[in-house]
Amino acid sequence: xxxxxxxxxxxxxxxEGQVAVIIALLIxxxxxxxxxxxxxGSLYQKRGFFQTVADSAALAGAQELFExxxxxxxxxxxxxxxxxxxIDYVDVEIxxxxxxxxDTITVTSSNPDTPLFFARVLGINSADVGxxxxxxxxxxxxxxxxxxxxxxxxxxxxxxxxxWEVAGDEKIISGDLDExxxxxxxxxxxxxxxxxxxxxxxxxxxxxxxxxxxxIYARIINISQTTHATEERVGTWDxxxxxxxxxxxxxxxxxxxxxxxxxxxxxxxxxxxKKANDKWSEEVEILGFAPFILTGIEGHGGSxxxxxxxxxxxxxxNEGDIEEVESVGLRVIRLIR
Length: 337
Fold this sequence. Notes:
Radius of gyration: 32 Å
Number of domains: 2
Number of strands: 16
């Protein structure tokens, strides 16, 4: 009888020992799972931070690519370092995608020794966490919100060279053909409801897309409608210098978007009929699109003029297709991966 009791106790002790081993193993598994959940969450959050830095650094560098590839690299590195991510030139790659010029930049931001927490129980102290981003600069194929003013340049001139020369100079939008640097334009040749369309397009821009090579119809400017619609569009006027910035070589760039910033098509000059009126129109072909800053309205009554200045470059938001970037005009900076 005593022998049976001792045997039964031994079995109970053996079972308890097995349970203790199983519990110990379960605790290790639970710690491992906890380490996995907490540390993976932490790594995911850190990777999101590195991705944001890489995205922003690539976009910052892409703005300088066309003019100065070295400056593009410096800009990307400076932006990342400013956000406490230490990258060097080996982490930045520039190359060509749409053109013979450098127009694409890839930035990699990472930390090979990102500390872990619970995983240290398993002997894993750190992990390599990082991300990369690629940005491109291009010219929008189609342009929206173009205003109904047409910049006229000499026949046969290269419009990019022309804009290089005139950017920063004061230009006049006037109903006086001898004074004005612009004509008006319409999307259709039929003059019906012209002034209604003209006013709306000054305030809101043309709702349909336009691109190089499109045909539009030049016509004389109605200065009364021009000044009233311009005042409604702008509201409060800011100084030219508050809206632009100057970079190396005197390049004038748009510093911030504003209602005073407009986009105008460019076409070769045409012979205006001597008795031009609101019913006159002439077919022209768009050569390109120039960024223009409205700076004020001068004069009174029929002698009123809208004043402004062209700038070399403007980065705009455009979701459509992009083409090879030009030396001047409109640009799109876009993440491509």
